[in-house]
Structures are given as structure tokens and as C-alpha cells.
């Protein structure tokens, strides 16, 4: 990679102009420097824009800037209600403490790696991606729709991820995480995460084992057997050195059962407390 230009934008128009000219966005830089980019000549330093890391919006939703590091998101007081879930999910990344300090949540999504734990976290939280477009507008897509394949996203030329918006309701939900890998400290081969909303709605998200995030929802928590069947019925399974697709399908089904059982236990305990 030979970079000849580093753009230091002061306003939004500078970002889009540089991106349309062929530069790539830079925040933490961990994904950017993790692979070769033969024809990359320019970078756009998004950190210079000074986006607020996290903020509560008027409707109670939580907004996380795309430039906020994993460590900042995890340790921020505003994420305290979901901190255990974020910790368990971010810990599925094959990353050192240095990466946690510099790597960004938004960058993990935009890298679009199947094993991107930041993608799993955003999808499970029901986050919405805010995207700046070159014409000055902001469009939104569900986080689950941002990544559409290994290394690919729905971002069009000149567009940049601005923030992730987490619904206020997700801050009071319950969560469970199950990960599988060929080796204890290796890259995730299967990651199944679940959310149980206060009203009983259950969401399962499958990543790492599939090319792009798969989201399954039920009005009430399914049985472990139903969750296993639904996950194993997914049509596409990822193949790389981290695991055979058939094995990934198998362990993802087991993980779905475990996640569902944990959430159901949580629901029963909650209802028991309410009747006292």
C-alpha cells in the first residue's frame, strides 16, 4: 500500500470529495491495515471531524459515532445497561488490547468480515446505521442490512457510515452469546447472539458461520429445538480455513438452542420476580 495523500477534513463536503476521488475512510485503521490495498493512494481521517462518541437522542435512543473505539463504547457510562453483552460480543474478536483501544465499532462493520463481532453486536441490538451520502442527505439502513457479503457492504461510492443508532428499548433487553472456533483463541467460526425484549419478542442473529448476518425473530421465545431447526434451515453457510460449512451449520444450531434456553430461563426468572 502506497499512500500519497492524507485528507484532514474540516467539514462534510471534504469527506465526500475525497472518497469520490478514490480515498478510503480512516478511523482506527485496524481493518484498513489488515490487508493489502494495492491501488490505494489516499486516506480520509474521519477522527478530525470530532464526532461525539456517544449521545442520548431526544427520543431516548443511543447514538454511537462510527469513529468511537471498541474500548470507548464498552466503558462509556451510557452503555452500562448493555455492557455485559458488549463485552461478551466484542471479546469474540481476535484482537489485542491495542486493537480494542484503537479499532472502531463502525470500522468493524464496514470491514464486513463474516467474523466481525461488531457486526453481530449491532445487529443483535437492532441498531440502525446512519449513512452520509454525497448529496448532503443522510440515509438509514438496519445494521443487519449494511453488510451484504464477505468484505462487501451497501455503501455506495462517496458514502460513509456516520453512526449507529441503538433503540432505547434495546437498553432494557436481555442478551445471550455463544461462540464456536476451531481453536480457543482463533477467529470465530460461528457466533450466535440473542436478544429478549421486555415484551417477550426474541431475536437470534447468526454471524461468522454465514456470509452475511442472518436475523431470525419470534413473537415469543422459541423452544431450543425450534431455534435449532430455524438456524439450520438457513440457505447459505460460509467456507474458509476457520471451518467447514457443514460443521458450522451443526454448531450454529447447537448454539441457537443454548442461546434460546438461556433467554427463556431469564424470561421465567423475570416473570417470577414480577409475581412476588
UniProtKB/TrEMBL annotation:
It holds the Pfam family FAD_binding_5. InterPro entries: Diverse_Substr_Oxidored, FAD-bd_PCMH, FAD-bd_PCMH-like_sf, FAD-bd_PCMH_sub2, Mopterin_DH_FAD-bd. Residues 1-171 form the FAD-binding PCMH-type domain. Transmembrane segments: none annotated. Gene3D superfamilies: 3.30.465.10. This is FAD binding domain-containing protein. It comes from Dietzia cinnamea. The lineage of its organism: Bacteria, Bacillati, Actinomycetota, Actinomycetes, Mycobacteriales.
Amino acid at each position: 500500500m502506497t499512500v500519497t495523500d492524507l485528507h484532514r477534513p474540516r467539514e462534510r463536503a471534504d469527506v465526500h470529495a475525497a472518497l469520490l476521488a478514490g480515498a478510503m475512510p480512516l478511523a482506527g485503521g485496524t481493518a484498513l491495515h489488515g490487508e493489502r490495498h494495492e491501488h490505494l493512494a489516499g486516506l480520509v481521517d474521519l477522527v478530525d471531524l470530532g464526532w461525539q462518541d456517544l449521545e442520548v437522542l431526544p427520543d431516548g435512543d443511543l447514538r454511537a459515532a462510527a469513529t468511537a473505539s471498541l474500548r470507548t463504547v464498552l466503558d462509556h457510562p451510557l452503555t452500562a445497561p448493555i455492557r455485559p453483552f458488549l463485552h461478551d460480543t466484542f471479546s469474540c474478536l481476535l484482537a489485542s488490547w491495542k486493537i480494542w483501544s484503537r479499532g472502531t465499532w463502525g470500522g468493524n462493520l464496514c470491514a464486513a468480515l463474516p467474523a466481525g463481532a461488531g457486526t453481530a453486536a449491532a445487529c443483535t441490538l437492532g441498531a440502525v446505521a446512519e449513512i452520509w451520502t454525497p448529496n448532503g442527505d443522510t440515509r438509514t439502513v438496519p445494521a443487519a442490512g449494511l453488510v451484504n457479503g464477505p468484505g462487501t457492504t451497501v455503501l455506495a461510492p462517496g458514502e460513509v457510515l456516520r453512526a449507529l443508532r441503538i433503540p432505547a428499548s434495546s437498553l432494557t433487553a436481555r442478551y445471550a452469546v455463544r461462540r464456536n472456533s476451531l481453536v480457543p483463541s482463533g477467529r470465530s467460526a460461528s457466533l450466535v447472539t440473542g436478544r429478549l425484549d421486555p415484551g417477550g419478542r426474541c431475536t437470534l442473529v447468526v454471524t461468522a458461520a454465514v456470509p452475511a448476518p442472518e436475523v431470525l425473530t419470534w413473537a415469543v421465545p422459541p423452544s431450543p429445538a425450534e431455534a435449532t431447526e430455524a438456524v439450520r434451515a438457513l440457505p447459505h453457510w460460509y467456507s474458509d480455513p476457520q471451518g467447514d460449512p457443514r460443521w458450522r451449520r451443526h454448531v450454529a444450531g447447537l448454539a441457537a438452542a443454548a442461546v434460546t434456553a438461556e433467554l427463556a430461563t431469564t424470561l421465567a426468572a423475570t416473570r417470577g420476580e414480577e409475581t412476588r
